[in-house]
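C-alpha cells help. Consider this.
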Amino acid sequence: MAYLLGVDTGGTYTDAVVLDEGADRVIASAKSLTTRPDLALGVGRAIDAAIASAGVSARDIAMVSLSTTLATNALVEGQGGRVALIFIGFDTAELGRAGLDQAMKGDPVLFLAGGHNHAGVEQQPLDLALLEAEITRLAPEVTGFAVAGAFATRNPAHEIAAREAVRRLSGRPVTSSHELSAGLNGPRRALTAVLNARLIGMIDRLITACEGHMTSLGINAPLMVVRGDGALVSAALARERPIETILSGPAASIAGASWLTGEQNALVSDIGGTTTDVCLLKDGKPMIDPMGARVGSFRTMVEAVAMRTTGLGGDSEVHLLEGLETGLHLGPRRLMPISLAARDYPDLVHGALDQWLTVEAPGEQDGRFAIPMWQAAPPPGLTPREQAVADRLMTGPLRVTDAVRTRLEYPALTKLVQRGAVMIAGLTPSDAAHVLGRLDSWDGEAAHKAVALFARRRNGRGDRIMASPVALAERIVTRLESQTVDCLLEAAFDEDARDWSPETPERLTRHPLSVAGLDGHQGVVRLSLTLGVPVIGLGASAPSYYPPLGGRLGTRMVLPEHAGVANAIGAVVGQVSMSATGIVTAPGPGIFAAHLPDGPQRFGTRDQALAAMEAHLTAVASARARAAGVEEIRLSVARDVSEIAVEGQPMFIEASLTVTAQGRPRIAVTTPA
C-alpha cells in the first residue's frame, strides 16, 4: 500500500500529514515548531510524529512533497542573504525601476558595459577582465550573485559568460535572469534574479533538512517541492530556482482548501505566523496572476497564484500608534512571541519582565529581546557596528537594550534582523491569545506579564493605553480581526470584474461608505456590504480568530477539519507542470529569428522559425518533466502571435510560445522485505 507524506514549513510551525493514496484520505497529521537556524529538528519532529500517528512504515511512503512560506516570509520581512548584482548593459537610472534599488538594500551593484539589442545583436563587448577582478573582490562579502543583461532573453551570451565566471572564481551560487523569465523588462528580471539569489541558501537548507531526515528513516521516495503556481517540481530544480517557491505555501493551501471542502468558488484566507494570504478559488482552481507574483512591495516575473500577501499573522509585531487616543496596528514584521521566547529562555525572559514591571512607565524597548539565529558564527560582510552587536550576542539572547549600547547601533540590529541573523522577541497576537485562553501552547504567564507591561504605555494624553492586560489582549485580537477583514475586502475588490477606477482596492476597503456598509448603517440612507462568496479559513490559528468574520462580512465562514495542516495536504495532491517559453521576432524583411539559448537563429519563413522554437521548447519542457519523475507526459502549446495589417496583408511582428509538460510524479514502489 502506498502512502504520501506532505510537509509544510512555515514561520512558526512545520506541519506533516500522511495521506492514504488509495482511499484518498488523511490518516494522520502532526505539528512541530519550526526550528531556526537548524530546520532539520522541526522537520524531523513533524515527520516522525505524523508517521507514528499513522501507524505506517517509513518504507511505505511512496512520495514526499514539501511546501513552505519561508521564501514568502523572507521577502515580506526584507530578509535574505547579501548578494551582488552584475548589471550588464544598463545605466544607473535603471536601478531605480521596478523597486530594484529597494531590493538591493545597499548591497553591491557592478555596472558593466555589454548586453544586446532587441534583435539579439551584441551592443558592446563584455569586459571580462573587469568582471573577473570584481568577482574576486566581492566574493568574500556576499552569499551569492545575480546576473542581468540587457535583452538577455533575446541573446543570453553575456549572462552565460558572467555566470560561468562567477562559478569558476567564487564558487558562490549565481542566478541568471534569463533562466527565470523570458520577459523583456530588464529591471524586473534583475529584481527577480536578485530575490532568487537571496533565497538560495534558505531553501537549500530546508530541502537538505528534509532529504536528510528521509534518508535517516529509510524513505526511498522522490522529494517534490510546491511551486508558487501550485505545481510540483523536483527538489533539484527548487534549489536552483527558489524564487519559484514564493507563494509555495499559499498555493498549496489553495489546493488543500479545495480538496478539504469541495467548494468551487470562495475566498481562501490562510493565516500563518507571519502573513495572511488571500486567493480566489474559482471553479475549483486558483486564479493565476498574469503579471507575475507580487509579494509585499515586489512584483516579480515568476508565475504564481494571484495571491494577496499581507504581513499580518499570529506572530505580527504590535505597534502603538501615536496620537491622543489609543490606536494599535499589527505587522508587517514577525516577532518571536514572548510566550515562546520564555519557553526557551525562561530565566532571561521572566527576570527581565519582572524587573520592567517594577517601573511605572516602560521604555520604548522594554519587553523586547534579541535572539541570535546563527549556528556557529554570524554571517560574513558585517559592518563594524553590526559586528559589535553580533559579538555581544555570541553568548546567547539578550534584552535589546543590552545588545544595543547606543542609538547608532539600532540600525545595525535592524540590518542583522533583515539578514535573518537575529530575531526580535516581543508582544504579538499569539501572546494576547494566551492571555484570553484561546491558546495554551507556550508560557502563558510570560504572555500575561508582557501584555501587562505593554498596557502601561502612555497615549498622547499621558494616560495608560489600557486599564488591564485582558482589555489590551482583547483589543489586539479585535485589531487582528479588523485587519483580516481589510485583507479579504481588498482581495474581493481586486478580483471583481467591475472597473473601480480611479479607486484602488485599498482605498475602496477603507472608504467611509464601505465601512458604513459593513456596519449595516440604517438611516435616511440604508447601506449594506457583504461578500458574494464564502470564506474558507485556513491556518492553525484560524479557529481562534476567524469565527466572527463571517458575520462581519455577511457570508458563510468555512473552517474545515484539518484546516491547520491544509498546506501540507495541498503539497501532495498537485501535479508536476513544467513550462518553457521562447520568442520569435522579425528583425528585417523576410527574416525570422528564433531566440534560442545559443543565440538567435534566422529562418526564411515565419512557420520555420515557429517550428524550430516549438521543437526546442518541447524538448526542454519534456526533459524537465521527466527529471521531476513524470512518466506519462501531457504536452500543451500556447502561441501568442502579434501581427498588424499593412495594405490589407498581415505583417508579423513577434510571437511568444509556451510549451507545458504536465503529469503526476512517479510514485515509488516499495520492495517487500
